[in-house]
Amino acid sequence: AAVVIMPAFEVQSFLKTIVEERIDSMASVPAIYWLAVNQPNFREFDTSRVARLSYGGAPIAPDLVLEIMGAFPNARVGNGFGLTETSSLATFLPHEFARLRPETVGFPSPVVDVKLADRYVDGDVGELLIRGQNVVKGYWNKPEATAATFVDGWLYTGDVARIDAEGFVEIVDRKKDMVNRGGENVYCVEVENALAAHPAVFEVAVMGVPDEMMGEKVGAVVVPKPGRPIEAGELLEFAGARLADFKVPQYVVVRTEMLPRNPSGKILKKTLRETVEWGKPVPVGRAR
């Protein structure tokens, strides 16, 4: 067996490598798979040899999970979630549940305990806490950060999550990214997943837009698929059928430029907040 590491990512080279190197196991971030399966010539590449495929490192839309399973039909897929502080993996969604519960990051690893703290008004969500042998002791030469993050043996992750009766963990947002719209919490990942399900949406980022009366309103930056123009009103009508009224974005920016990402594929929302010009909010009637 051999490990193939690409010195730099280029999507066509990535697809050629799968065939030429006879790749049977793959691990990458959702953005890489998303770019690959949306290439017009994707079906020209034989992916039948891929037997194991994992994704993680960033949120993934449920629709993309299903798309990946269709694109790599012989692969067992899985979603790994964790932090640097948990020595990478903390939970895992195995193949058997990938189609059934694609919105989750699965179950805690065997050595890991999870629970929720600081539950919000919603009741079933709170900050995700992790405890286990894989969790580090603290940060090197940062006693204050260590004391704030590691409390009574638990790692405070900064992720907002829900844990259901079956043990599935669902990450709904980062605490710092959650939108507080007039006292109502809006979880950006939930809104992003709803918008990403629209057939013309290529990628989307949701964040809070400062508002004098409400504190924040929901804004969305949307990149349409090539050759698939989309209007804000159409998108919001689509979202309104899937989200509570207060979660439907009132600001929408449609652009052709790809969203900024860091090397691991995560969208740089801080960069977007600093550069996006939101314009005027969508009339309430159109934003439901």
From TrEMBL:
**Matches recorded under Pfam families:** AMP-binding (PF00501), AMP-binding_C (PF13193)
Write the record's keywords in alphabetical order, separated by commas.
Ligase
Q: GO terms for molecular function, please?
A: medium-chain fatty acid-CoA ligase activity
All copies of the AMP-dependent synthetase/ligase domain together span: 1-140
Residue ranges annotated for the AMP-binding enzyme C-terminal domain, each copy included? 190-266
Does the record bear Ligase in its keywords? Answer: yes
Per the UniProt entry, what is one GO biological process?
fatty acid metabolic process
Tagged with keyword Ligase: yes
Q: Which domain of life is it from?
A: Bacteria
- Spell out the family assignment given in the record's similarity comment: Belongs to the ATP-dependent AMP-binding enzyme family.
Name-wise, this protein is AMP-binding protein
